[in-house]
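Hi, here's the filled form for the chain we discussed.

Project: internal
Contact: R.S.
Residues: 693
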Amino acid sequence: MRSEKINPLFSSIVSLSGVGPKLERLFNRLVGTKLINLLWHIPYNVIKREKHENIHEAQINTLITFKIKITEHKPSRFRKQPYKVHAICGNTPVDIVFFNARHPVIKASLPVDSERFISGKLEYFRNTFQVTHPSHIIKVEDINKIKEIEPIYGLTAGLSQRFFSKTLEKVFTFIPELDEWIDKQNIKKYSFLTWKKSLLSIHNPQSIADLKYTNVNRRRLAFDELLAHQLTIAIIRNNNQKKNGLIFQTSMKFTENFIKSLPFKLTNSQTVVWKEILEDLKTSNQMVRLLQGDVGSGKTIVALLAVLQAFNSSFQAAIMVPTSLLAQQHFLNIQNLFKNLNINIVILTSKDKGKIRLEKLEKIKNGQANLVIGTHALIQDDVTFNSIGLVIIDEQHRFGVFQRIAFTNKGKKPNILVMSATPIPRTLALAAYGDMDESRITEKPIGRLPIKTASLSIEKEERLINRLQNKLKDNEKAYWVCPLIEESEELDLKAATDRYENLKKIFDKKVLLIHGQLKENEKEEIMYKFQNEDYKILVSTTVIEVGIDIKEATTIIIEHAERFGLAQLHQLRGRCGRNNIQSSCVLFHKHNLGINAKKRIDKMKETNDGFEIAEKDLEIRGAGEVLGRRQSGFPSFQIADLSFDSDLLEDVRKYVDKISMEDPKLKSDKGINLRNLLYLFERDVAIKTLLAG
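And the returned structure, exactly as it came back:
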């Protein structure tokens, strides 16, 4: 139960005067509908309004505040004409201009012969000073209500800065004084003020310096947010460790025979990781492990060894992937690898309907299905496992941080193995996967050649086409990835379609097009054609970023490479080089590169090491970009930024470790304060876990 002190902050925004259903929808689109949501929406800039007695002293096109006397109203005669209010500032004429405004409202706020303070952008039009749509019209006696420094917030269409600020001021009255939840050591180390003082200060900046990442008040709130997140992870982890998991058979004969049957030898890195996983499976503690490995490093084989161990122990296993296309690919590949084994594999996706779906659900329920491969469909309520013992989540960055918890309700504490082909910087891994043990595969399969990466200016397109024509004379194929334009699927599609039509003319129609707006069955059909028929080039948006594995594809061209982040460039590059033939990646870019774009492209040419690239990506772009919507599985922080706050994260983790040892149930006075913090950042899952445990 939330304390009475903080309960008011969780009231609906419609409880405030002046906010109805229409405005509620706008606020919901921006931040949410609770008062607390507004408090975590901090300003990104400030505006400064200068007060002037003499209008001639002010600079044109600056925000100023000055006193006027209204002399005359000139209503608009036609629809497109402005409504003008003539006034004087001292002895200088000035016009206050309104477009599409209601006449009675203007007359009421600016009565003739009255004095008012006006605040807005000063302009000079047709030899007359003017202010169009002033932001403030204030009675002389209320002049102190105009702030010289005002915060600027990111907004949505329909919400004005003035209204948002006025609404926030109402919310400020609900902020309670709360007892401190941060330990004295960190308070002293960082010179933190109280939570309330820091929050009010960040919303009332006195200069742009108050909004910088180094500002002590922002850092205090960032510490709070990281603390809430890490404490949640610790509570969930402690709860998992406390309960007994499923113990797998210790016999290795089944998996050893499978390893011997493989046409290749496991790398040293694969062997080490498999031993770590095996040790987890042998204990009564639930395994929750993150397996990181670069593109093509052989994570799937290691995961399948765990599947075989589950089968040998009479447990079911499940593999969850983000797309139907990837699920189908896994199904076919694993079927081939297990062809000599008596393992029944079922694929379940959202495409399965009616009788077919019911038949599959029955096989899963009665235990006939030993291995189930699927998408989000696996965690739907109607999916019941007979004896789920192992859950493998592939491409974890496409799923939510706590989404995997849903699988724990599908059985008796199944072991969980999470795989990511997107190498994650250490600080981000701590933030996103702090409840998990970590394993890394750092080697590529024996005989796999590193991908050669080159860059080429778009002005040299003809040269690139000639090289590609020569390359594709053999039984080789190529990807051509089209640019990401402001994350707009429509624009992405246009760019891809134009490139497709152009290449089709050159390569005798041996070109295919795939994009995100196609239906899943259409994508699958195109991928089948590209893999099995005489097509040479697949033009694509970033839909091929995840999980497409075609061994004949030895070239990838990334058009407008400067628009992509390092991690995504590396992920795309990994779509080729899946065999022992020398593969290449061409970063096709505009002529004049920006500083950061050049850094990214240079780094791609310098190394094939995904972990090194991930760290560089964090350095160049910052956590805000790296954790963007295309990597939605990472925690989305409202205030903290891990590229600046990694030092805070280290101290937060030490503090959380101490709490976990001394007060795991958060029952002490400090523990009660920490519960308030969890509620303030809406980490209700942590409270529920504490209450349930």
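Let me know if anything looks off before we file it.
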